[in-house]
Each structure stands twice: as structure tokens, then as C-alpha cells.
């Protein structure tokens, strides 16, 4: 089974920090998993960003995951992709990228999660838990019971897929979420929109680790 970090830090298009600056600050704070999420740039600009962030990640021993943009596989030092399309065919995606690349998916229902588990995803981001400024959507918000049920259902089916809660999670939500039995947390806004990214990252890191 591939290594999956318990705290996924996600970069975002924000006014005061570039993706590169976000990645640098996150690595300095100790991030071991960075998901580069940029849906606003053309391929040349994406690759320029990714190559620069990959150098930083290499220096710090940090895993670099790219949101969507799977067509860039092999063009930069990318360890994996997170695919946000709930209907993506992960069997086809796995054939395309091979076994070494990490593939994560997004889900809003237990049925979504089961399909991802059966199609060979390496982890799933299950959400949204709360309203989020960084990724507006109309999907139903999930409660603690939804996370408990998902963990229970996978165990009952003997499916081993790390579930990470995602979407508008604040530091005070983490303890209760982790008690549902999920694997970890993915965070963007609650770290990026703070005065001290280092402190915010470490608060989440300490809350997620057992």
C-alpha cells in the first residue's frame, strides 16, 4: 500500500500568496503532503509552478500531488494526482498513469467511496464537511455520522481505503472528526487564511496525529 499522509495541505488561488509561496511556507512548517490545486492557468504556467514546487518538495521530502490535470503526468516530478470528478473512471486512469503514481479521488456519498475503493484509488477526500470559500459547490454537507457510517461500511465490505475529511474544516472540528475513525484531514482555507501559516499548519498537524 502507498504512503498516504494524514494531513493534506492544499494550495489555492489566493490574493496575498502565490502557490509557490504557499508551498514554501507549508514545507517550512513541516508539511509532508502538498496538493497543488490550480484550475486557473494554462499548461505552460502550470508546469512552471509545478516544477518550482517540486524542487521545494524534493528539498523537504514532501509528497507533491496535483489536482486534476492528469495529462501532465510524466512532464514534471509529480508523485500523484487528486481527481475531483466524482464520475471519473479510475480503472482507466490507473492504466494511463501506471501503478507507481498515487491516485486520490473525491466523494460525497458512501456509494462514491465504495466505487473508488473497488476501482483502485489510493485514498478518498470525503466532503464537504462544512461550507468553504476555497471550493464553492452545491453538494450536501456531511455530518460526523456520515463519516462514521462510511468507515463502518468499508470495514464491513473488507475494503481498505483511507478516508480524509475535506471542506471548510476548522481546527476545532478535527478532534471529533478523527474520532469517527477516518484516516485524516485535508485543509486549505483554515491554514491559508491565517496570519501565521506555520502556526496554523502545526496546530492541525498536532490535532490529526494520534
UniProtKB/TrEMBL annotation:
InterPro entries: Aldolase_TIM, ThiamineP_synth_sf, ThiamineP_synth_TenI. CDD domains: TMP_TenI. Residues 10-191 form the Thiamine phosphate synthase/TenI domain. Pfam families: TMP-TENI (PF02581). Pathway: Cofactor biosynthesis; thiamine diphosphate biosynthesis. Keywords: Thiamine biosynthesis. Transmembrane segments: none annotated. Signal peptide: none annotated. PANTHER family: THIAMINE-PHOSPHATE PYROPHOSPHORYLASE, THIAMINE-PHOSPHATE SYNTHASE. This is Thiamine phosphate synthase. The lineage of its organism: Bacteria, Pseudomonadati, Bacteroidota, Sphingobacteriia, Sphingobacteriales.
